[in-house]
Amino acid sequence: MRKLQVTVAMVALNCTLFTVSAQDLVVQVNKPVAAVQPTMWGIFFEDINFGADGGLYAELVKNRSFEFLKPMLGWKELRQTGKGKTLIINQGNEKPQNPRFARITVDSGSYGLSNEGFRGMGIQKGKQYNFSVWAKSGEGNLIMKVELVNTAGKKIGEASLTSFSNDWKKYTVSFITTDTASKGLLNVFFEGKGMIDVDMISLFPQDTWKNRPNGLRADLVQMLADLKPGFIRFPGGCIVEGQELETRYQWKKTVGLPEDRQLSINRWNTEFPRRSTPDYFQSFGLGFYEYFQLSEDIGAEPLPILNCGMACQYNTGEVAPMDQLDPYIQDALDLIEFANGDTSTKWGKLRADMGHPATFNLKYLGIGNEQWDEQYVERYRAFEKVLQQKHPGIVLVGSAGPAPNGPRFDYAWKEFKQSKAGLVDEHYYQSPEWFFKNATRYDNYDRKGPKVFAGEYAAHSKDDKDAESKNTWISALAEAAFMTGLERNADIVQMASYAPLFAHVEAWQWRPDLIWFDNLRSVGTPNYYVQKLFANNKGTLAVPILQYGHVLTGKDSIYASATIDQNKKILQLKIVNASSAAKGFMITIEGASVFRGGVWQVLSATDPLAYNTLDKPSYVVPISTPVKASGSRLKVLLQPSSFNVLSLPFNKKSN
Predict the structure, then answer these.
(1) pLDDT digit string (tens) for 597-610?
(2) Where do the domains of the chain lie, and which CATH numbers do they carry?
(3) Interval 452-504: pLDDT, tens
(4) Are 354 and 260 a contacting pair, CB within 8 Å?
(5) pTM for the full predicted model
(6) Name one GO biological process term (predicted).
(7) Which one from 67, 370, 415, 468 is the annotated catalytic residue?
(8) Which residues are registered as beta bridge partners of 296?
(9) Is cis: bond before 617, omega within 30 of 0?
(10) Which residues pair with 424 in a beta bridge?
(11) Are the C-beta atoms of 498 and 457 separated by less than 8 Å?
């Protein structure tokens, strides 16, 4: 890991000493150029890198219902003092959404199963853990003993269940752990003589987000809440498409009781041979209801993306024929009903039955993820025709394809200018140099067409030995420079989200990612802190920040944008110094004066390839200092290779 040195910049009013000569910048508070939408900065969620199962979804048991392609994957038999066997039963059409269960037969003594979790189980000392199982007694009177053990095999928690019925029932028991383990195991023993059927063997921490059963991992949700996102895009991403239509994401399979949700292979299971992950499946315990609930919890607009009758064009490229597209369109109509429908409707009633009688107030809907060419536009238009007629208030999002330019991109934009799409989703995974050069990307976009959703972007730079190493400071700095261009063009760019969001350090397929985690810890990358600084200092109106009458888009390695929060009366200046030298500026504020109480946040590193890790999470983090300036002029000294956010209380001047 490279060493990092952070120097806190200082602000002074009427200061006369600079290590470099000050240049004039002008902020025109009295000349707003665009409204900044509440949805401007959001987050993109996709179940990649163990983002859901093994990540955000707090379930600790892998393959809890024996539905993986290999039913015993994640499990192994335990024979201590007795004899027994496990037989996997497939009920077939009797219960097609969850057909398998395990039949345990014990001849004598103690026989059991051990589950390895998702690269182990993260267990915290002194915390409550809730075990549950669906079971049906066949014969005999077996005792089920549950225990957590650490990597040394030491028992750190235990409980037992008895008196099982001859009918399927859910059984629960809780216990407090005696120690911490980053890679614990769950052992389930059966003692006595007899037979029992078991399914949905589950273990959750009590301390989920808001302590909800079937809940989310609290520390990861808190990382999202701290971003104060304007929206959450879900469930992806390429996962929406599937490698073929059969494995596309189908939202109806992700709602209702968790035990009735139909597991599916995750497309990232085999997508990259170099990072093959044969134990990567989707239990859908984290489904569309939980996505909507999470959005509501953290004050973000939900932005679901639905399959448009097309599988991934990089894989099979399968499409549903146009005369067979109705079920896909009906899925969109039913989703709107699930989110917004009255409880007297079929899908509105299901939402209420799941615990949320009030609507989720869905406003946005994406049609397709990253599709392109005529076959996509034709299918998009079929969706648009129906949805605009039945739900004209829903803002539709179309795709500009996988690249930020080229014939496919140009074709998509030409077609969408003739559509009723509210937003067009652009994606760019490029080098840091590209992001620096494209801070002016939207300066000359057509203001009469659809608005822009920068739906997936990340600067890709070099990596090192650590999983987190591709999230370098230079990539974050380049993104900050680019984002000043998004903010300056807030009239055309109304949504933006970094991608992907989460990655487990031992189970990733794609890098870089915004947040890295293991079974107990999580860490924000430099890129995370760039996103947080923008989103936490968003403002309501973009205002000009100029040098000699021109916007700052990279001349002398300086990039800048400015906003004001009309309600809180705060001026937010965001300035990137991408050079290796300090830069001094005299800033004149037109139409307002600032007063004491401001804050200057600096994100900086001397090494462009510096990054944060789980073991060393604070190499690149914002440093805050108070601003004691007042008046309409102030001098600032920007440290080399730094992203600076100045939040300054202001009063408007009367004309």
Answers:
(1) 999 999 999 999 99
(2) 11-36+542-652 (2.60.40.1180), 43-58+211-522 (3.20.20.80), 75-205 (2.60.120.260)
(3) 999 999 999 999 999 999 999 999 999 999 999 999 999 999 999 999 999 99
(4) no
(5) 0.95
(6) L-arabinose metabolic process
(7) 370
(8) none
(9) no
(10) 398, 452
(11) yes
